[in-house]
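User: Hello! My lab partner asked me to get a predicted holo structure for this protein. The small molecule is zinc ion, SMILES included with the sequence. Please write out the structure tokens.
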Amino acid sequence: MLPQRPSAEHPPAARPLLGNGLNVLLITVDTTRADYLGCYGRPGGRTPNIDRLAQEGALFERCIASAPLTGPSHASILTGNHPFVHGVRRNSAVPLASENISLAEVLKDSGYATAATVASFVLNRQFGFAQGFDYFHDVSQTSVDDPQSAERKGDEISRDAISLLRTLAPAPFFLWVHYYDPHHPYETRRSPPYTTAEAYEDEIAFMDEQIGLVLGELENLGLAQRTIVVLVGDHGEGLGEHGESQHAYLLYNSTQHVPLIVRCPEAVVPGTSLAEVVRTIDVPPTILALLGLPPVEQTQGVSLARCLRGEMAVPTLEAYSESFEAHAQFGVARLRSLMDQQWKYILAPKPELYAMADSLAETNSVIAEHPDVAARLRERLRVIVAEAPPPARPDSDAAATLSDADRARLESLGYAGTAVGPDEVNGPELERFEPEGANPMDFTAQFELTVQAGDLLQVRDYAAATPLLQQVLAILPDAPRPAGLVATALAAQGRPHEAIPIYERVLKLIPEDTYLRGSYGIALMQVGRTQEAADNLRIVLLENPRSARVLHNLAIALTQLGRLAEADQNLQLALEVEPRNPRVLHTLGILRARQNRLAEAEQYLVQALQIDPSFRQCQEDLERMRANMRGRQP
Ligand SMILES: [Zn+2]
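Assistant: Hello! Below are the structure tokens for the protein in complex with zinc ion.
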């Protein structure tokens, strides 16, 4: 989105201030392993600013994230609940439902001005993360084909955060600042390859410098003494440990152990270090308690405020984590884990047990030696899942905007009225508890090949990507993700006829995969099956009503079907989500030309070219249109 600047038209909520009126600065550091920070013992660590924050505040030595994925983990940091309660199980799929109560909503209702600046498309407003924020600056797309990879660099985030701080001060505020630099590819400072641990650490150092600028501004503005600063990670990075280079699929501490630092001048003894297990879901209750505000009911996290003040020891906590990503992408079993101060148990077809007492390294499973411990932790996991409050219901406002004819057609396809029904949200969680399917840890080589192929497809190297995917499919023939990537590669090479049967096979296995269904719809359009294309794109919108990619392609299909007014409507919606998307602007220009509104058409094409000067099709269309306009003049 275009940054919405704080202004007179958008004043913060004028509500009476509750609590003690301290400010809150929440810094979330993406993909940041705790053990890569100096304050967590990294030899030669390159994080002086984060280290200083820890010296001035308290450091939690063992903080565990709920999930190794940006969207689900941030939803936990903002709501204080695990994914099976807040409902975000994957990135960019089902948005954080408005039924959830986020920290921003509570603080806004308590009279705080709320603002956020986030660096990854995965946290964009269309995925529900803006709820409760007066100002929300997310990632606007420019010429990126794959929106998932769209990001803002740390220097841009810090400039934005500093300007927000200046605008928000001195009123009590809640500012959330998200850094994404350590996320793969590690390219901010390096020349290729962008995949090494050295390049990863460069990114951490760069992010630390940027965080230093924001903390410095807090000092300059005289706010440091009146501001609670919380720095927390969403997940780590495998860097080759346990066969995982990045994150998402497995639940080892390389991706689950994250930094958590709290600086609160009056409430925290500087330099405190707390060795007990805590969770990222404890962040919202802790912030509320430090502000003197009551807790939100039905939050799974607990307040650590009294532990920070030294009034009590950290209670004995169990850290739950889950990943359904390998299940969704490869059809293998879902993973869950539970960690306490002594043990970590991973629930899988071949379960694992590690002793945590001395080290978090997880090098040697001791499940054979301690079957009683494994059985106890497995039962605790079952109870945690069984006793959880019911999951938030996904928003389904998209269904309300369907025309009667569309509703009838979708009903005939078995879809209308309700959301498609992603199996990760519907029905009791306990029914998904048993880890059915193949053991994910036995297929890390296939996961890695698929990640590599995905990177190659980003740079359109289809020839190199396809054999890697075929290698994976030889071992896991029903795996949706590699099959979907093969289809995507075929479609991108102008072979949609070959892609379509693959999409159809995969969508039989995972009908709820909205990204694949969107790609399928686009391929159908390429072969002239326009009505079917429109139907499939509408199904995606039931689930994810604010996908600009799908709104845009549906508009193209509707234009081809001669339904120009509906096409126009969908393009306007797409522009609301992504006002600077050059492809949407281009299509809108073409539509205006068809409607004979040539001056407007020209404006849209010019705007698209200003954003992406290398957009050749748009250049050609603009030249042709201008030639036609000149030809008409007397
Ligand atoms: Zn992340």
